[in-house]
Amino acid sequence: MTRKSRRLWLLVACGIGLGSASALALDAFSANIVFFVAPSQLLATPANGRTVRLGGMVVAGSLHEAHRSGEPVAQFQVTDGQKAVQVRYAGILPDLFREGQSVVALGELASDGTFAASEVLAKHDETYMPKEVAEALRKSGKWNPKFGPAPSAASWNRMSVKTDTTRGS
Amino acid sequence: MPNGPSLNIPELGHFALALACCLALAQTVLPLIGAHRREIRLMATAPALALGQLGALAVSFLCLAQAAITDDFSVQNIAENSAVAKPLLYKITGIWGNHEGSILLWCLILALCGGAVAAFGRNLPAGLRARVIAVLGGTAAGFELFCLTTSNPFDRIWPAPMDGQGMNPLLQDPGLAFHPPILYTGYVGFAVPFAFAVAALLEGRVDAAWGRWVRPWAVGAWCFLTCGIALGSWWSYYVLGWGGYWFWDPVENASLLPWLTGTALVHSAIVVEKREALKIWTVLLAIGTFSLSLSGTFLVRSGILNSVHAFANDPARGVFILGLLGLVIGGSLLLFALRAPRLAAGGIFAPLSREGALVLNNILLCSICAVVLTGTMYPPFASLLFGATISVGKPFFDATAAPMAIPLFAVMAIGPMMPWKRAHLAPVLTRLWWAALGGLFAGLWAAIGLRGLLPALAFGFAVWVILAAGADIAQRIQMFRLPPSQSWRRARTLPRAALGAAIAHAGVGVTVIGLAGMSQAAHRIVEVHAGDTVDMAGYQWRLVDVADAPGPNYTARVATLVISRHGHTVAVLHPSKRTFASQSTTTTEVAIHTNLITDLYAVLGDEHRGVAGQPDTAVLRLHDNWLAPWMWLGALVMAIGGALSLSDRRIRVGAPRRATAGLSVGGRLA
């Protein structure tokens, strides 16, 4: 075995390793990337059957807990100040879930216009807002960081009252 | 409230930290000049300065501990993270439960590494030792400066509050209390191989002796990192209460990345030591592993990647750390680019040989690392470049990391049985036929009994790995070929490094069996009245009642669940919810019953008042996690294997003589 042929073997092995790694990664990227959307974006361009992360504020007074055949089902609305989306979640809401505070839900838009969540994340305290939610709120035009800190969480409901009634939910 | 004598303890700690930083700077400059000019007296300052820096940092850390234990709320860090009512254990472990304290702990462990090299490195050549200690000192100086300027744990506030704000209740847990020191020791431990690599580049010389010196440090750090990752995973399993053990969270990935390259390093250093090959690659791996460790800290501390575990979101600190990272990683890579081509090429080997198998191990581990790194870094880059907020989660990593790991398991059973330089597959495979048969049967059984192809494959290969590790030892002690007494004598004189390697490989198998079993976990969410019984996974789960219970700094609602099978009571579980008055937060306490084969896992959710005379109801989440304990047990076995290999006589006695300079091909450059 000469030095040159060993180098060739090494290059071939590295090529196979890295090649299959990038092939797997590209394939997985096309199928498994999850986009973050705000409620108004979700309703404007409904991506049917694709899993997304929906983020916004929980509308105060919208939380509704019921149970269906022994399993608890929570329903609540998530808003970005423009549109509100009804979210359905079968499971235990996290300890830090509060009405009037930010939340991120993982799931997909069902055909009846409600969002079926498979996971609800509220992993932060009352003073902290997830970066992506803050960004979505800024894009919706309800808050510009130039003019100071984000408005208090409770006021987000009032902004969305009008859209709630038009949606008739 | 602060009382008389403790008034200036925090200032003493602050001073000691500044002193440590100055000593670390001296520790960088003097030995480097000494090694360059070959002045023995300047080189000899290195160990003394390293030990002095360690002493100063220890004083600093003890001062912070003293302030924390005596509830000195005039120190901002303690006022923000502690409270009078907090139990003593968490007052102590709370020191590193926040950003400032954790950076101080990081510095202390780095100083400990420097001190260990100074104390145990007597058999190193003076020049190499001086350079290694100097590189460690330079890294320490950077982090201590970071601690002093942007995150001083000794900052005072005035007026001092009567009581502190208390600790995040999620962190108030024995598992997490000891998680940071162990994980940090793993991260920081890779600073020593890094320092050896940079010192070797400065000297322009890497040889078998260098490999022998680096390997124990890499193995030690690897053991701690393995334990740290396992402990973190176990913590999220039983504290976060989602029933999961690994969320492919950026912070978790940040600890997995250096583990993957560290594992590759531990293996490639063997080749350097035994065959003087792969030298340049091993140096690069040592640099890369520590760079990933540093980036792990950076990812957690800067808030670039949001995560459950991050407790600091401060961009100013991020800029400092980014600069520090650029300096350490960029500087060492630049040095590598300049000096590596001049390192002498090593021994030649056939592709089919022990060296070849270890190269394949390195290629596969680094490919997995590249895939995980891509998945972790893509979201922040995508938001920076395309403005799209995306996330890459479990499905991505499952689809990429798992298919790459399977060939790794297939090969890791064969590798240790192959001879150096040139091997033939046939004799190796004839010795492994019964391991292959066992793996095949296990895989077939799993394919019939388990859901999914991947778990079945993983199960079969895991059994193959464990049996092959046993076959390796059996062959070394000539079991069944020699009389048992002779085999026993061989077993006792077996090099512990070989035994350790076999045990660590078996540990990987145990962990993979746990992972495969956990993919079959079942769960159910139910809303029940007291007295109701739920059937799940072959057990009857009966809710007896939900009652109030007081705690030291919280109040709790505790449910009593009786689990029975075929009419016999198996376990009584007490899942609970705790409400902490000082932060007005609630935490969920999971109840787990384990018999080492399966975990019965129960979480108490919301309670609802009964309407119109109906009894109250409680929401419960019940899990049956098959083979879950094996995941962490396997990690423990891996670490034990590593520790056993560290206790090998060759390392303990370990005074390898360096080949004289005339014999080595690469001359001295610096």
UniProtKB/TrEMBL annotation, chain A:
Residues 29-169 are extracellular. The keyword Secreted does not apply. It is found in: Cell membrane; Membrane. GO terms for cellular component: plasma membrane. Residues 1-25 form the signal peptide. Gene3D superfamilies: Nucleic acid-binding proteins. Keywords: Cell membrane, Cytochrome c-type biogenesis, Heme, Iron, Membrane, Metal-binding, Signal, Signal-anchor, Transmembrane, Transmembrane helix. Heme binds at H124, Y128. Its main location: membrane. SUPFAM superfamilies: Heme chaperone CcmE (SSF82093). GO terms for biological process: cytochrome complex assembly; protein-heme linkage. One of its GO terms (molecular function) is heme binding. Residues 154-169 have a biased composition (Polar residues). It comes from the Bacteria. The keyword Nuclease does not apply. Residues 142-169 are annotated as: Disordered. It is a single-pass type II membrane protein. Residues 1-7 are cytoplasmic. Transmembrane segments: none annotated. Heme chaperone required for the biogenesis of c-type cytochromes. Transiently binds heme delivered by CcmC and transfers the heme to apo-cytochromes in a process facilitated by CcmF and CcmH. Belongs to the CcmE/CycJ family. NCBIfam families: PRK13254.1-1, PRK13254.1-5. This is Cytochrome c-type biogenesis protein CcmE. It comes from Lichenicoccus roseus.
